[in-house]
Amino acid sequence: MFEMPLPPSPGALEHSSIDLMNSEVHLPGGKSYDALNTPKETTTWLIARGLVSEGAVLQSYCQDRLTGLRSDLRKAFEARISGSTVDPRVLNNINAALTAAPNTSLLHYAPGDGFFRSLEHPATRLIEHAMSVIAEDAAALLAGDEAHLLAQCEAEPCSRFLLKTHGRRQWCSTRCGDRVRAARSYARKRTQADPTLI
Ligand SMILES: [Zn+2]
To answer: Does residue 4 form part of some domain?
Structure first.
């Protein structure tokens, strides 16, 4: 089972779009971890989040489509955070994901159990459905009341996305915060030891 090196960032458990963007992690020393590295890992990631049902089997084109959405979402969120304009192609791609599969639970009836609702999609549309759910979450976040809380971890090279639920939070995790604090304290000690480094 794939193990992420960092715990979920603030907001990632509530928002599948943040979760998707953070499915690739960069750490110092050129290390990176990608939870969507293979079709099998992509399937495991989607099942763990209830975005496809247990036993689903996805192919490499599904993996490519999901990592493509991840890349488009990052561009859109980066534009929101930095205040820059977004490429219309990125918007088109996100809108295509939004509308590729209806994101509505249908009404069912089973004798004995009565009425119940569930999302049902043909096996060939599994990835479209998962992408539409994630794109819906992204659209609601980017255009909603919490958009000003979006941020990226400032502990380079991490840059994972987060919601600033604690005022001035700058890091996605205590591990990244500790790393930055340790680096700052090291830099301070070095300049104290050798003032010519300032
Ligand atoms: Zn971080």
So the answer is: no
Taking the centre of ligand 1 as the mean of its atom positions, its distance from the CA of residue 168, in whole angstroms, is 14
Residue 109 CA to ligand 1 center (angstroms) comes to 46
Asked whether residue 174 is domain-assigned, the answer is no
CA 162–ligand 1 middle distance (angstroms):
9
Ligand 1 centre to CA of 113 (Å) is 46
Cα of 163 from ligand 1 centre, angstroms? 12
Beta strands in the chain (DSSP E): 24-27, 31-34, 106-110, 114-118, 150-152, 161-163
Distance 81 CA to ligand 1 centre (A): 16
Distance 86 CA to ligand 1 centre (A): 24
Domain membership of residue 115 (yes or no) is yes
* Amino acid in position 48: A
pLDDT tens-digit profile of 164-176?
Answer: 977 777 899 999 9
Supply the range of the domain harboring residue 72: 16-149
What CATH number is given to the structural domain containing 33? 1.10.3300.10
Beta bridge partners of 5: none
Give the model confidence (pLDDT) of 16-64 as tens digits: 999 999 999 998 888 999 999 999 999 999 999 999 988 888 999 999 9
Cα–Cα distance, 137 to 90 (Å, whole number) = 16
The total number of structural domains in the chain stands at 1
Residue 194 lies in a domain: no
